[in-house]
């Protein structure tokens, strides 16, 4: 939910005027004379620590300036090759400890303690400091540093073109870039130009409750990391750069340079060598935390609405989905279930506990789940137990020694401090108390940037009530407030482009001079609020019944993916927002948060009919990793069964999603192991194919399933980019696209109720029969779809599936609790082989999981013969492998389409189906046959 006042014209006019006031001081106006911000530093000493401890150097300022405050006279440089593929370069005050991301929130290798510039070690005089893959180089006067690849000497980062500036509240450093580098990341923001960063677009990083409908603006998350992909000699080579800093910053990307302007903390760079995009997310998440494992049901379809005013409405929604035979796994409540919008409460009239418990017993018996929202703001109410216990434990953020007063949905609120150990333990206890009241299956933490309907220092008014009874605009501030202008934290010397309009740092959030535990300033810790709340919530849920937690969070930071899923926030029911959702989703895969999706059909209402848009949005949203329909109370009802045409699209698209659940869940397992995103840009699988570097209207699920949605009103076809190779339409595998890799788009038919989803050659894709709830779908027999290149006579394919008891908190192979199976297929002339290798098969055997069919695509010939099947290395008994006699059947010719748009019927390639099987998933098998080839 969003503070609607952010969208008001008055607010934008006000802050536009403020922008003109602040712009001159920041050197923004073109007519302003550029100020000299700093003259840089010189390196006066550099030593090498023993036992691979890295380099430590001392920097002295060359000439002081007063712009944005005085320069810090002496800096400490620390460089270490922490792993073969990662080097860290940290620059901080040599004499005083500065703020940095707390190590208990984001565990990592510590830097050496400060020693006032006195460091013992061997003097380091070499021009380079090499690691196994990356090399650190530097200049002494002025000091600059660079990082390049050891193998190719390719420069990844080079600060020699600009002066290093380091002041208490202003840090600046720049790197040169080649003009052909493709950059991704630096978020969260809604990027109208697509996933590839555009020169001269603003990239401000500061967590803000400003709707996702605002373009090129700092939104809910802070992720100061970017991936750089370059084509060198026809080969795509990638690396990534993280500036681990939680303070607000502007990042200026000019095409041939990138400049950081940060308002506090220190410069703590991590460079990741790649060289592939997948290697980068592996290296990145190994440092920031692997993505949290999600329960199986979380990959089902979710339905929510802010405006389910009573339990009967929720019951009706569930019934509507069942009657329409549309899959549904999870039903959500926004704040409607609460008593007067107070956390951890139930509305006694509209959501009476006895009736809610009876409803949950019913849906839990069916396998459905229930999730509710909680906001961080705790209502200031002396009769409210949650508030009373919080006050007793002194766990709220403070200003001038008193709990900081803000306003959100319940009215006046205090914000818990999740940096305070007592605040964390209090929160864990409140979650436990609520779970005892209502056995929810997950928690949705919202408004945690933190959002505040007011700005500045506020008091409860004496002349009127707050909240205003029966207000139609509860997002309008009703506290008595005044701006705080007398601190350098609330009015720093450099103004980042906050809220896209150089707003005050404390605008509609916590005042930046407020303090957390141990005197930590909100100025420094602001962007960590949602991250710290997610960690506390994860701890709380993990301790309940020993189940795997599911948490959805709006505000995120580096490492949030290790604890929570994310949705892209308050979007709008427009075609533009449909398109924007893809880029944001793909960015979060790069950020290490693979469980992500947008509000299907849009959160805010838009003018005109939603029907066609909802058709296209559920077709796309059915393939978001996190798939949820959500709208606000002002929107028309948009559950998928409201329109028959949308219901038809939902049954089609979600029907395919539920067949693909084993594939999606296996991607979830791989993400947890290696950070590999569930939804990926095309260049992740095809980094050498430069035409796909900017593609933002299609995406991959895993390495080899491509989704090409319709994103334009009235369209009945879609222009899609196909990397080189053979692609089979999963809805109709006789529809085949063979791409020669020329980069020309292919025009695909896309009637209203259809979406194009293709599987790539060399893939073995595990699928099941599907269903209307994941509990039932996951118990159905498997089909293996084996995709060879079109007309293959010599090729290989592979795939895998992971199944487990998803109630376990851990997601790891363990005998009796999980099974992992690798599939391999090959064709050599006439001979075709499909086989499996099983790890820890007892879980699958216990669950009775079987493979009923193998469908092989792209073979040359007219049919198959001489079928033979072995299980566990021995010839299979027919009763052990088949529900009836196994059969081998050939399909007809394929409809071949290429980049020239010509279709033709081809009999060179056929599909071969081996059916009637009951092969145990938990036992290794080998299946062979020979193709019949016409002379």
TrEMBL record:
Top-level lineage group: Eukaryota
A GO term for molecular function: hydrolase activity, hydrolyzing O-glycosyl compounds
Record carries keyword Signal: yes
Domain (Glycosyl hydrolase family 31 C-terminal) ranges: 675-765
Keyword Glycoprotein set for record: yes
Record key words, sorted: Glycoprotein, Glycosidase, Hydrolase, Signal
CDD domains: GH31_MGAM_SI_GAA, GH31_N
Range of residues in the leader sequence: 1-25
Residues covered by the Glycoside hydrolase family 31 N-terminal domain: 96-247
Residues of the Glycoside hydrolase family 31 TIM barrel domain: 291-667
PROSITE patterns: GLYCOSYL_HYDROL_F31_1
Pfam families, alphabetized: Gal_mutarotas_2, Glyco_hydro_31_2nd, Glyco_hydro_31_3rd
Family stated for the protein in its record: Belongs to the glycosyl hydrolase 31 family.
Name listed for the protein in its UniProt record: Alpha-glucosidase
């Amino acid at each position: 939910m969003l503070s609607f006042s952010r969208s008001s014209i008055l607010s934008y006019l006000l802050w536009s005027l403020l922008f003109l006031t602040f712009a001159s001081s920041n050197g923004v106006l073109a007519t302003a004379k550029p100020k000299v911000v700093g003259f840089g530093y010189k390196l006066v000493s550099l030593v090498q620590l023993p036992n691979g401890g890295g380099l430590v150097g001392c920097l002295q300022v060359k000439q002081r300036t007063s712009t944005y405050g005085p320069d810090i006279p002496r800096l400490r440089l620390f460089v270490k090759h922490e792993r073969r593929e990662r080097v860290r370069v940290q620059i901080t005050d040599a004499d005083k400890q500065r703020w940095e991301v707390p190590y208990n929130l984001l565990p990592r290798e510590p830097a050496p303690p400060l020693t006032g510039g006195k460091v013992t070690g061997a003097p380091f005089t070499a021009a380079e400091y090499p690691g196994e893959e990356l090399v650190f180089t530097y200049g002494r006067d002025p000091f600059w540093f660079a990082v390049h690849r050891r193998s190719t000497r390719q420069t990844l980062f080079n600060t020699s073109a600009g002066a290093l500036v380091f002041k208490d509240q202003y840090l600046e450093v720049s790197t040169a870039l080649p003009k052909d580098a493709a950059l991704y990341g630096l978020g969260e923001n809604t990027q109208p130009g697509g996933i590839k960063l555009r020169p001269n677009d603003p990239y401000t990083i500061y967590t803000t409750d400003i709707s996702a409908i605002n373009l090129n603006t700092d939104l809910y998350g802070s992720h100061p990391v970017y991936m750089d992909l370059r084509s060198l000699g026809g080969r795509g080579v990638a690396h990534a750069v993280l500036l681990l800093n939680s303070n607000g910053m502007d990042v200026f990307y000019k095409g041939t340079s990138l400049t950081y302007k940060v308002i506090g903390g220190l410069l703590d760079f991590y460079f990741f060598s790649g060289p592939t995009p997948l290697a980068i997310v592996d290296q990145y998440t190994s440092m920031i935390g692997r993505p949290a494992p999600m329960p199986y049901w979380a990959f089902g379809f979710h339905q929510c609405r802010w405006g389910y005013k009573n339990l009967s409405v929720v019951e009706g929604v569930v019934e509507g989905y069942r009657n329409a035979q549309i899959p549904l796994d999870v039903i959500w409540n926004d704040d409607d279930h609460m008593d007067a919008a107070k956390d951890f409460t139930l509305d006694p009239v509209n959501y009476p506990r006895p009736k809610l418990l009876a409803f949950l017993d019913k849906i839990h018996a069916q396998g459905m789940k229930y999730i509710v929202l909680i906001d961080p703001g705790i209502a200031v109410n002396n009769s409210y137990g949650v508030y009373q216990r919080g006050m007793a434990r002194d766990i709220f953020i403070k200003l001038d020694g008193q709990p900081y007063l803000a306003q959100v949905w319940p009215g006046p609120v205090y914000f818990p401090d999740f940096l305070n150990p007592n605040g964390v333990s209090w929160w864990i206890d409140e979650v436990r108390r609520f779970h005892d009241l209502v056995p929810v299956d997950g928690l949705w933490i919202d408004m945690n940037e933190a959002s505040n309907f007011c700005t500045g220092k506020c008091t409860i008014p004496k002349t009127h009530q707050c909240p205003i009874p029966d207000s139609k605009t509860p997002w309008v501030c009703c506290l008595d407030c005044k701006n705080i202008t007398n601190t350098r934290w609330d009015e720093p010397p450099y103004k980042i482009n906050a809220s896209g309009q150089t707003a005050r740092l404390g605008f509609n959030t916590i005042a930046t001079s407020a303090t957390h535990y141990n005197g930590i300033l909100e100025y420094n810790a602001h962007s960590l609020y949602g991250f710290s709340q997610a960690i506390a919530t994860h701890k709380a849920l993990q301790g309940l019944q020993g189940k795997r937690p599911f948490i959805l969070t709006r505000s995120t930071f580096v490492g949030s993916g290790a604890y929570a899923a994310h949705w892209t926030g308050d979007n709008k029911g427009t075609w533009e927002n449909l398109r924007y959702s893809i880029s944001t989703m793909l960015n979060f895969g790069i950020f290490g948060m693979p469980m992500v999706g947008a509000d299907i059909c849009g959160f805010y209402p838009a003018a005109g009919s939603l029907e066609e848009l909802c058709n296209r949005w559920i077709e796309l949203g059915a393939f978001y990793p996190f798939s949820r329909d959500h709208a606000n109370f002002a929107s028309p009802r948009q559950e998928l069964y409201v329109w028959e045409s949308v219901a038809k699209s939902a049954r089609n698209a979600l029907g395919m999603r539920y067949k693909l659940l084993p594939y999606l869940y296996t991607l979830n397992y791989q993400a947890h192991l290696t950070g590999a995103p569930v939804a990926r840009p095309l260049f992740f699988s095809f980094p050498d194919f430069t035409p796909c570097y900017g593609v933002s209207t299609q995406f991959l699920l895993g390495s080899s399933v491509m989704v090409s949605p319709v994103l334009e009103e009235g369209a009945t076809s879609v222009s899609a980019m196909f990397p080189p190779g053979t692609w089979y339409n999963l809805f109709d595998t006789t529809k085949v696209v063979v791409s020669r890799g020329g980069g020309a788009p292919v025009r695909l038919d896309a009637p209203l109720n259809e979406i194009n989803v293709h599987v790539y050659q060399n893939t073995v894709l595990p699928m099941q029969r599907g269903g209307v709830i994941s509990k039932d779908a996951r118990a159905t027999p498997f089909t293996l779809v084996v995709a060879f290149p079109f007309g293959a006579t010599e090729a290989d394919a592979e795939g895998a599936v992971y199944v487990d008891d998803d109630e376990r908190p851990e997601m790891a192979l363990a005998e009796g609790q999980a099974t992992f199976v690798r599939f391999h297929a090959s064709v050599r002339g006439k001979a075709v082989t499909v086989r499996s290798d099983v790890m820890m098969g007892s879980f699958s055997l216990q669950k009775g999981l079987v493979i009923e069919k193998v469908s092989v695509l792209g073979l040359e010939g007219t049919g198959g013969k001489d079928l033979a099947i072995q299980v566990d290395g021995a010839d299979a008994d027919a009763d052990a492998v088949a529900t009836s006699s196994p059969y081998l059947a050939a399909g007809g010719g394929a409809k071949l389409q290429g980049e020239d748009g010509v279709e033709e019927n081809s009999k060179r390639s056929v599909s071969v189906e081996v059916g009637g099987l009951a092969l145990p998933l938990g036992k290794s098998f080998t299946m062979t046959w020979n193709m019949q080839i016409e002379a």
